[in-house]
Amino acid sequence: MDNHEKHYQRAKERVQEIKAFYSHIFIYLIVNLGLFVLNFIVSRGNWWFYWPLLGWGVGLIAHAFSVFGLGGVFGHQWEEKKIKDMMNKMEEKDKKEGIEEERQEEQNVEQEGHSDSES
Question: Which residue stretches of the chain are H helix?
Fold first, then answer.
């Protein structure tokens, strides 16, 4: 997969995330407007519509942070940087383990060579 394809795929995923967030806002507004109207018709003196509005609003805010980030903190750039950092650490660990395995093999070969020359 070349860079253009990677960028296209990432952009497509990002657009889908934003689209899902806007759908969430639309549904939030429609449902809560319906709850307000229902509350207004059924029991004007007892206002309860704001409880689901507030509860769902917290979820909506969390969704916004997951899509748009906190001004760079825990956003997509942070996420990409962390992924690259972790991949680099894993590659370094693999290299170290590979070097250690090579050393162990060399030691085994040397020990076998010494035991063969002693015989």
Answer: 3-42, 50-68, 76-118
Residues 64, 7 share a domain: yes
**14 and 76 Cβ atoms separated by less than 8 Å:** yes
Residue 73, SS3 per DSSP: strand
pTM above 0.85, yes or no: no
What is the average pLDDT across 2-10?
Answer: 84
Residue pointed to by tokens 């967030």: 21
Same domain, 86 and 53: no
Q: Please, is 109 exposed, middle or buried when counting C-beta atoms within 10 Å of its C-beta (0-12, 13-18, 19+)?
A: exposed
CB under 8 Å, gap of 24 or more: what pairs does 86-93 form? none
